[in-house]
């Protein structure tokens, strides 16, 4: 997929709402498009838009094996609500067994390297299989989720995966997402009501206090600037930057 499409599509996407952004991308970009969900509130809104519009966009998730029971329950509830199966990718058995042999079942707490090794086996490698041969990748990233995501763009070329990456909620505020979810009665994770804003693997996620950033509950024992899991970084391990996001929607 050509990086030049970013310049073509970005100004056309910017004035649109979520539904029309996804429609435009589906009409404009040939080949397979995959949306990866971790069942967070943004992901649920995007899934709602894809399913209710009947868009030819694959909806897929990575089951790390360490998710919250509430997340599995939401997964099932979402499939029932929209009558669509959500495809799952799993860690490969041999590397996972080797990882546990080496670092133990909760070895990711021991160091950043150990945590990244776990994220690589449980998330990054399965993601690479989900994205193989794909033209465009849709995610639920928002720019105001954390400082590290401050420059997330609506659309960018992902050099690591060699595809277009669309973040159709990049310029939405959390309040705007919550309002849309309530308006359309989109199913969301019960953990949000208990102070969990960003929800990932159970042992690596905690609730946050009022005023803390949304990502503060992820890998809370690490420094802020080292907290991305490896799914949204380039080949050099650095979070990919794009053009400044548009003003946050209220
Ligand atoms: S978030 Fe935690 S449990 Fe999940 S893959 Fe990363 S280190 Fe492993």
From TrEMBL:
It comes from Methylocystis borbori. HAMAP family: CysH (MF_00063). [4Fe-4S] cluster binds at residues 118-119, 201, 204. GO terms for molecular function: phosphoadenylyl-sulfate reductase (thioredoxin) activity. Pfam families: PAPS_reduct. It comes from the Bacteria. Catalyzes the formation of sulfite from adenosine 5'-phosphosulfate (APS) using thioredoxin as an electron donor. It catalyses: [thioredoxin]-disulfide + sulfite + AMP + 2 H(+) = adenosine 5'-phosphosulfate + [thioredoxin]-dithiol. This is Adenosine 5'-phosphosulfate reductase. Keywords: Cytoplasm, Iron, Iron-sulfur, Metal-binding, Oxidoreductase. Its main location: cytoplasm. It is found in: Cytoplasm. The keyword Cytoplasm applies. Belongs to the PAPS reductase family. CysH subfamily. Pathway: Sulfur metabolism; hydrogen sulfide biosynthesis; sulfite from sulfate. Binds 1 [4Fe-4S] cluster per subunit.
